[in-house]
Design brief:
Order of helices and strands: HHHHEHEHEEHEEHEHHEEEHEEH
InterPro entries: Ald_DH/histidinol_DH (IPR016161)
Organism: Olivibacter ginsenosidimutans
Low-confidence stretches: none
Number of domains: 2
CATH class of the largest domain: Alpha Beta
Radius of gyration: 21 Å
Protein name: Acyl-CoA reductase
Strand content: 15-25%
Strand order of the largest sheet: 8-9-10-7-6-11-12
Length: about 350
């Protein structure tokens, strides 16, 4: 049997078993996390475990079945097409969802790993192959994509232009830089603001789902916010994070830029979305209608919004603390990759 004869039920079964394996937190993860951290110091063992937990919570039969249901029986129709995947590596396993979508939809995959994250995905896929050996001959790694039929590539705003030209002959999804924002209304509890700390500091703020910009009411007092996030001060123990904090603080002091500082996070009023590491920009608003208009104008640059209240804008919204725990159908850039592959079988 090969993957083209693996029914969707078989594929779901295999990924469910992979999820069960991850939930067991086996001893071999400790060794792997040590190796990964030695190669990329941003990928601390805690960050690796956080990424694994977020993936594992989605890999169960019920969630996978519900996710795939609208595309059956189409996904049981055999295909010989190959999906080329150019993966990012800014946070651990950030490219796993693309791999999952392509394999569970029944495609061959050709994977170009990021040099910053070239151990974790192969480790997971080795476990998947151990669970279901028929996946083996349909998972290939490469330094340069070739002989592909479809492409899903993630990069920067600069590399996206190269991708769009290079992959112009095939159906593609090309992702660019995006940032996430938080909306503070001023009536949040300390506990809620503490949860917002996860959106700011998980993975040291390196992910596109991490909050880089705060929208706050005019005259907002940040005292409760700073008190609420004080438990995240340990990020400053990481030498690279602390170096970024020191550097940006020095720049602001030398230039006389007005800013707030709690010892590990700098807040600066700025209309831009993408803030430097260890900095969060903030911007004030008068009323929700004004804010909705502002966000709508920037929706193509925003990955998600974290807020305690719904907003009438077409951007994925998460409760405080949940931005780095996307569900299976929380697609990057709002582009449904499963639908894209189903339509290009």
């Amino acid at each position: 049997m090969n993957i083209h004869n693996l029914t969707s039920d078989k594929r779901i079964w295999a990924f469910n078993n992979l999820g069960e394996y991850l939930k067991q937190q086996p001893n071999d993860w400790a060794e792997l996390a040590t190796r990964v951290s030695a190669q990329n110091s941003w990928f601390t063992p805690i960050a690796v475990q956080m990424a694994l937990k977020a993936i594992a919570q989605n890999l169960n039969t019920e969630k996978l079945t519900q996710w795939l249901a609208p595309y059956l029986p189409l996904l049981d129709t055999p295909t010989t097409k190959t999906v080329g995947l150019v993966l990012a590596g800014n946070i651990p396993l950030v490219g796993f969802h693309d791999v999952l979508v392509a394999l569970i939809a029944g495609f061959n995959v050709q994977i170009k790993l990021s040099s910053d994250d070239n151990q974790l995905i192969p480790f997971l896929l080795d476990k998947l192959i151990h669970i279901e050996p028929n996946f083996a001959s349909f998972i290939n790694y490469t330094d340069r994509l070739k002989n592909f039929d479809i492409v899903i590539a993630t990069g920067s705003n600069n590399t996206s232009r190269y991708f769009e030209y290079y992959f112009r002959e095939v159906p593609y999804i090309i992702r660019k830089n995006r940032n996430s924002v938080a909306v503070i209304q001023g009536n949040e509890s300390k506990a809620q603001l503490t949860q917002l700390g996860h959106d700011l500091f998980d993975y040291f703020g390196l992910g596109c789902r991490n909050v880089s910009k705060l929208y706050v009411p005019e005259q907002y007092n940040f005292n409760l916010f700073f008190e609420a996030i004080s438990s995240f001060s340990e990020v400053s123990h990481h030498h690279k994070y602390h170096n970024n904090y020191d550097y940006n603080k020095s720049i602001y002091l030398v230039n006389g830029n007005k800013h707030l500082d709690n010892g590990f996070l700098l807040l600066k009023e700025d209309e831009r979305l993408a803030s430097p590491l260890a900095v969060a920009y903030y911007q004030t608003y008068n009323h929700f209608e004004q804010l909705t208009t502002l966000l709508d104008h920037q929706k193509d640059q925003i990955q998600c919004v974290v807020s305690t209240s719904p907003l009438s804008v077409n951007i994925p919204r998460f409760p405080f603390g949940q931005s780095q725990q996307p569900a299976l159908d929380d697609y990057a850039d709002g582009v449904n990759t499963l639908d894209f592959l189903a339509q290009n079988r």
